[in-house]
Amino acid sequence: MAPVGGLMRVPNVMTVHPSVPAKTVQEFIDHAKANPGKVNLASSGNGTSVHLSAELFMAMTGVKMTHVPYRGSNPALTDMLSGQVQIMFDNMPSILPHIKAGKLRALAVTTEARSARLPDAPTVGDTVKGYEASAWFGMGVPAKTPSEVIATLNKAITEVLVDPKMKARLAELGGTEMGGTPADFGKIVASETEKWRKGVEFSGASVE
After folding, report:
1. CA distance 50 to 115
2. Would the pTM of this model clear 0.90, i.e. be above it?
C-alpha cells in the first residue's frame, strides 16, 4: 500500500457502568487491582481499537480484567447499560449519547489531548504516563500508483479537511482532522503498526 493522507482521529472513551465505585482512572486502577479478574471488559470484537485500547491500558498498569468480546459495539453497549460488563473503551460517537444521558460514566479519553465533546474528562495519559490510543482513518492506494495520482488525491483530502462544514462534522463526532503529506501519513502508519503489534502480542488477540 502507498499512503495518501490521514483523514481523522477519533478518541475512545474509558467508560464504566455506574455500579463501578470509581470516578477517576486511578480509582478504577485501585478497584481493579483489588478485584483481579473480577472486572468484565467489553469490546466490539477481538483485535478492534476498542479491545486493544484496553489491552494497552492493562499492559501499562498491571490491571487484570476479563475480556468479553462481542460482535460489534451495539451488543456490547447493551450489556454495559445493564451492568453485565463493567468497563469499555468504546469509540466516542457510539458511547457518547449514553454518557450524556447519565447511563454510563466517562473516566477519561484515550487521546493525548482532551476532547471538546467531553471537556470535563481528563486523558488516560494524565494518570498513566505515555498512554495514548485512538481510532484513526486515512487513505491508501495500491503500491505502484503513480506519484502524480497520489499527489492529486492528497491535495483533494487537504481541501476537504479545511472545509468548515467538514471540520464541524468531525467535531460532532469528537474527531480531529489529521491531514499532512503522504510521507507524514506513512510515518503514522508505520509507528501505529509497530505500537499495536506489541499490543496484539501482549493480548494474544486473534481474529476468529
Report:
1. 17
2. no
Query: Which residues does residue 55 pair with via DSSP β-bridges, in sequence order?
Result: none
Q: Tell me how far CA of residue 5 lies from CA of 91, 105, 115, 148, 155, in angstroms.
A: 22, 34, 23, 14, 9
Angle between helices 49-61 and 182-203 (to 10 degrees): 60
The residues near 93 (Cβ < 8 Å, ≥ 6 apart) are 10, 173, 174
| CA distances for 50 relative to 36, 138, 163, angstroms | 21, 18, 29
CA distance 176 to 179: 10
- Short-list 192, 179, 208, 196, CA closest to 56: 196
131's grid cell: 498512554
| 5-41 tens-digit pLDDT | 999 988 999 999 999 999 999 999 999 999 998 999 9
Encoded amino acid at 116, one letter: A
CA distance 198 to 104: 30
